[in-house]
Specification:
The complex is a heterodimer of chains A (580) and B (199).
Chain A lengths: L1 E5 H11 L4 E4 L7 H6 L6 E4 L3 H13 L4 E6 H17 L5 E7 L13 H7 L3 E2 L4 H17 L4 E6 H4 L1 E6 L15 H4 L3 H22 L6 E3 L2 E9 L2 H8 L3 E6 L1 E3 L3 H10 L2 E5 L5 H8 L18 H8 L24 H12 L2 E3 L24 H13 L1 H4 L2 E6 H17 L5 E6 L28 H7 L4 E5 L4 H13 L4 E6 L15 E3 L18 E2 L6 E2 L9 H5 L5 E3 L6
Parallel strand pairs in A: 2-3, 2-4, 4-5, 5-7, 6-7, 10-11, 10-13, 14-15, 15-16, 16-18, 17-18
Antiparallel strand pairs in A: 1-8, 6-12, 9-11, 19-22, 20-21
Helix pairs in contact in A: 1-6, 3-4, 10-13, 14-19, 15-17
Chain B lengths: L3 E9 L4 H13 L4 E5 L10 E9 L12 E6 L2 H6 L4 E10 L6 H4 L9 H6 L3 E5 L1 H8 L5 H13 L3 H11 L5 H12 L11
Parallel strand pairs in B: 1-4, 4-5, 5-6
Antiparallel strand pairs in B: 1-3, 2-3
Classes of the chains: A alpha/beta (580), B alpha/beta (199).
């Protein structure tokens, strides 16, 4: 029986069949559903870790302890986990370890589109690139086998179209009883310089052995067709190539580091013109060129964004299409939801003309008009440490109008060390933690502050106020973000204070069950509306302006009442509440 | 190459396009053919423009539908149908929910919502306009708009309604099943005149 699965579900299934018993991750699009699926298998211990470095270290410990372990993250998560990754490459594994890196060409939900195959090369570990859900499952199974056979962590790299594409998968049985013995072995697992020097040659020999293996690896295949065009490709781009150039000869590479030189040379020698078609970086192309093989790649295909059958077909084939010309349609950028507790906070920040050192999450959307309340957003945790740098560059007076804005999950991920640095080094700006009790952007995952684990069993919930006090912050205030006057008063007081302060704006995400506002949609009293436009500056999707006066889309409005507070003329009324 | 059926579902994040594409994918599976579905999760789900894609046939390669190759665009919002129109094949079908959701640039007043959307769609394809929100409210919940639209789609794909009903029952939360069933039937039985067709 074949089942329709996303790549992420198929990766989890592959890990299940491979006998994995420990799985860890931090949520990140497009990787999130891997661990959510793992958590549904009772045989597997799965966890949301506090960040990707922690997740990989948990996996490393499990591997050294003899278990097969799967660790999953988005591409930028590997940056966070890079430190343990590079040295784990030296120690190698006991039980197999597979690191899934889910990339996002086109930046559907990411801050950059780095090509993580470079990490495999950099860390000298093999990387497999599945092109559909069946391969996701099969490649994960193979990855565990290779991990143990070659004593190495193995990367399985997906991209959005593989991770979130559904296709058919044949299920298999789970392998059981694979837990290996644990033996203390310091020369292998204690990377003192002396031991590290012994391990590095092992890594280089392993790289050569893997390259030799890859010459005949079952995950590479040649599909001979018209030999006038030969294409080397991998991952989802293989699917695009097959659709665009059904007649071409194709070398589909399943393992893209270390590359099989002879296989590629033989293929190149039998086709008239050789192309490498790959998304993002010329990862395959550069190596193939370095071997002196003539090849066409990035001079023809973009280095930016996703590829597609029509793009490839238009460059190389006789692609026919009768597409309509695109009409002029306004953009529809993502926005904070109606009732989002972040909205009013940003409205106040905008009014107070604060400089905002921002961070990664739903609340990054506060950067867009009309809220326009963010100055920087670089990576997870950079809001607080970046704000300290801003203050040190521009002085304490600048810090009187400076806030770092970070979500609860992001604060726990990598904001704590930054805040400790602020206390230690005498920063005086205000850190605003937008605590909506969830990891919202990636689809509402639990974290150490929510009181639940990935499988929704209860867990200790960290108390943010106590946590920041224990770091040495003396000025700590908690406010209800729905109370805009209070938010404004507290932010004014705390930014004015010449010492480190933290304001926690605490209210659960409006999409969480049981946390929708009550009282029904807001009503507009048109007789009182002066068309001043203040409510428009909230940027609520439920307030519609067919004229200069607002009207309320009752299918969207959940009666949070933030706009009611913004209106100075009582023209916005919560149903069931009289004007006063 | 044998025929691949290409259906593009477009709308606004939060309208239920992902659930609709899951149902459609499972329904297509009943034909015993290869099925591929492409979804986008994450940031765009927060009120942004979203597209999911369903393809089925004897052999399907790319999970995404190339420009100009969609047989059907199922649009949950009017302007989104127009945005994704270049994906429709000449003379293809557009099933469009007659609902306007203003995007933020319109709300802040920097641009206007496009006019004569249906007429622009009809230049390129056969357009069926559906008052899906009203039908969903009639079924008992505005959130069932996506299932109303699936009902209308079911009229034209030639797959047994009973298969749709079964997949739907397996896909929605049990307590919403009654409303979703009704919404599906309202869509299935909705009779609309094609606005116009390509000459």
């Amino acid at each position: 029986m074949k089942r329709l699965m996303t790549g992420n579900q198929a990766i989890a299934r592959g890990a299940f069949e491979a006998g994995v018993t420990v799985a860890s991750a931090y949520p990140g699009t497009p990787s999130t559903e891997i661990i959510e699926t793992m958590a549904t298998y009772p045989e597997i211990y799965a966890e949301w870790s506090t960040n990707e470095k922690v997740a990989l270290e948990v996996g490393i410990g499990a591997s050294i302890g003899g278990a097969r372990a799967l660790v999953a993250m988005k591409h930028v998560g590997v940056n966070v986990a890079a430190d343990p990754l590079f040295t784990f490459s030296y120690t190698g594994v006991n039980g197999g370890l597979v690191l899934v890196s889910a990339g996002d060409p086109g930046m559907h939900s990411s801050q950059n589109e780095q090509d993580n195959r470079n990490y495999a090369k950099f860390a000298k570990i093999p990387v497999l690139e599945p092109s559909d859900s069946q391969e996701c499952k099969d490649f994960v199974l193979l990855a565990f086998q290779l991990s143990e056979q070659f004593d190495t962590p193995v990367m399985v790299r997906t991209t959005t179209r593989v991770a979130h594409g559904q296709s058919l998968v044949t299920l298999g049985e789970r392998q059981e009883g694979l837990l290996k013995d644990y033996e203390k072995n310091p020369p292998k697992y204690v990377m003192l310089p002396g031991y590290g020097r012994q391990r590095h040659p092992v890594v280089e020999d392993r790289r050569k052995a893997l390259a030799a293996y890859n010459e005949t690896a079952p995950v590479n295949r040649i599909e001979w067709g018209d030999k006038r065009i030969g294409v080397i490709t991998s991952g989802v781009v293989y699917q695009y190539v097959k659709e665009a150039l059904p007649e071409a000869s194709v070398l589909k590479l399943g393992m893209t580091f270390p590359l099989p030189q002879q296989l590629i040379k033989d293929f190149a020698g039998q086709v008239e013109k050789l192309y490498v078609i790959e998304e993002l970086e010329p990862f395959l192309e550069e190596q193939i060129r370095a071997w002196g093989i003539e090849v066409v790649g990035k001079e023809l295909f973009p280095r930016i964004g996703e590829l597609s059958p029509e793009l490839i077909g238009a460059k190389l084939g006789d692609w026919q299409q009768e597409a309509a010309v695109a009409a002029e349609v306004p953009n529809r950028p993502p926005v904070l939801c109606p009732g989002c507790p972040h909205r009013g906070v940003y409205y106040v920040i905008n009014r107070l003309k604060l400089t905002v050192s921002g961070d990664i999450g739903c609340y990054t959307l506060g950067a867009t008009p009309p809220l326009s309340a963010m100055d920087t957003c670089i990576c997870m945790g950079a809001s607080i440490s970046g704000a300290l740098g801003l203050e040190k560059a521009r002085g304490k007076e600048f810090a009187r109008k400076l806030v770092a804005v970070i979500g609860d999950s992001t604060f726990l991920h990598s904001g704590i060390t930054g805040l400790l640095d602020v206390v230690y080094n005498g920063g005086t700006f205000t850190t605003l933690i937008l605590d909506n009790s969830t990891t919202a952007m990636t689809g509402h995952q639990e974290h150490p502050g929510t009181g639940c684990r990935v499988d929704h069993t209860p867990a200790p919930a960290v108390d943010l106020e106590q946590l920041v006090r224990s770091l040495g912050v003396k000025r700590v205030r908690t406010v209800d973000p729905y109370d805009l006057a209070e938010v404004e008063r507290v932010l004014k007081e705390e930014t004015a204070a010449e010492e480190a302060s933290v304001v926690i704006a605490k209210r659960p995400c409006v999409l969480l069950k049981g946390h929708q506002p009550t009282g029904g949609p807001v009503r507009v009293d048109e007789s009182l509306c002066t068309e001043c436009g203040r409510c428009r500056r909230l940027g609520c999707p439920a307030l519609v302006f067919k004229t200069a006066k607002p009207s309320v889309d009752t299918t969207l409005c959940n009666g949070c009442g933030q706009c009611v507070q913004v209106c100075r003329f009582n023209a916005l009324v919560k149903e069931g509440e009289a004007n006063d | 190459m044998t025929k691949v059926m290409n259906i593009l579902l477009v709308g606004v994040g939060g309208q239920g396009t992902v659930l609709a594409s899951k149902v459609l994918g499972q329904v297509a599976l009943s034909l015993g053919q290869e099925v591929k579905v492409a979804e986008i999760h994450g940031m765009s789900q927060r009120g942004g423009s979203v597209v999911t894609q369903v393809r089925y046939g004897e052999k399907v390669y790319a999970p995404t539908i190339p420009l100009g190759k969609a047989d059907v665009i199922l649009a949950f919002e009017k302007m989104e149908a127009l945005r994704w129109l270049p994906y429709l094949k000449k003379g293809g079908r557009v099933i469009v929910n007659d609902q306007e959701l203003d995007p933020m640039p319109v709300i802040v007043g920097s641009v206007s919502y496009p006019e004569k959307v249906i007429e622009q769609l009809a230049v390129h394809g056969q357009v069926t306009v559906v008052p899906a929100l009203q039908l969903a409210e009639e079924a008992g919940n505005a959130k069932a708009t996506n299932v109303v639209l699936l009902g209308v789609l079911a009229q034209s794909l030639g797959i047994e309604p009973e298969i749709w009903r079964q997949v739907l029952a397996d896909s929605v939360p049990p307590k919403t099943l009654a409303v979703n069933k009704k919404a599906f039937e309202l869509g299935l039985n909705y009779k609309a005149e094609d606005v116009s067709s390509v000459s």
